[in-house]
Amino acid sequence: MFLLLEIVILVGVVLLLLERKANGHLPGFTSKRKLILDSCALIDGRIVEVVRSGFVADQLVIPQAVVSELQNLADGKDSHKRERARYGLDIAHELQDTAPIQVVIDHTPFPEVPAIDDKLIALSKKLHAQLYTTDYNLSKVAAVEGVKVLNINELAQSLRPITLPGETLNIRIIQKGSSRDQGVGYLEDGTMIVIEGAARFEGRIVPVTVTRMHQTVAGKMVFGQVKHQASAHHRSSAVADEKLRSRLRP
What is the CATH number of the domain that holds 176? Predict the structure, then answer.
């Protein structure tokens, strides 16, 4: 009798451990990290290079609802959307054929959830997965729902080289800025730089001294001055400081 009771308890414990292992909640066991791709991620296409670099989860999940959405767009009348959707489908096939990790198509229907974005969030919760998207609104909704979001645009912004105040760069002045004497140019990584005193150098490459940086929701902006003007400003400030100190001397 006691032997039978011990066997029943042992079987119950084993079943409980197996269930927790499958859900990834058991310490000491590691479950596959899953990454769900939406249509924006596939159309963007950069996921292929991210996968090849090794900076990804253990398993990519492409919902059937996303494939159907791309198929509908690929059959539509809008030529621009049609080409982008076909490219997204090509990316899905390329991932299946060449990705060094497992790529699966998930067929969970979620009939009670009509919107595709809501289906993605529901699937992420069900699979305990992260969501890979470039859709800003979907990212915000998913974050509110407690779903971890990976956005390649945010990653690209964070990986841009840091430009420090005081550095001198050669910048082509593309156009005039909002102020009369401002010029606008771009760093090599595409970051906009607003340059004081550069409006008259439009179309030319001039040495620019970085003065400050400003982080916005859209990304980073850099401000600077044409180098000779920045040097002159520095010299005039130094002279003014020296005059002030001389007046304060006994």
Answer: 2.40.50
Same domain, yes or no, for 40 and 147?
yes
Please compute the mean of the pLDDT values over residues 68-72 and round it to a whole number: 95
The answer to whether 133 and 41 have CB atoms below 8 angstroms apart is yes
45 located within any domain:
yes
Please tell me the pTM assigned to this model.
0.62
Domain of residue 212 covers 168-233
Contact 196, 224 (CB under 8 A): yes
End-to-end CA distance of the chain: 103
What confidence score (pLDDT) does residue 27 get?
A: 47
Q: Are 185 and 174 in contact (CB under 8 A)?
A: yes
Predicted local distance difference test score (pLDDT) of residue 203: 92
Tokens representing residue 205 in the block: 């490459």
CA–CA dist 232, 249 (Å, integer): 26
Strands of 43-163 (E only): list them. 59-63, 102-106, 130-132, 149-150
The owner of tokens 């042992």 is: 10
Distances, alpha carbon 133 to alpha carbons 151, 163, 214, 236, in Å = 5, 28, 26, 51
Kind of pairing, strands 130-132 and 219-226?
unpaired
Q: C-alpha angle with apex 125: 147 to 15, nearest 5 degrees?
A: 135
Domain-ending residue, one of 134, 158, 182: 158
Pairing of strands 168-172, 205-216: antiparallel
Separation between Cα atoms, residue 37 and residue 230, nearest integer Å: 48
CB atoms within 10 A of CB 68: 12
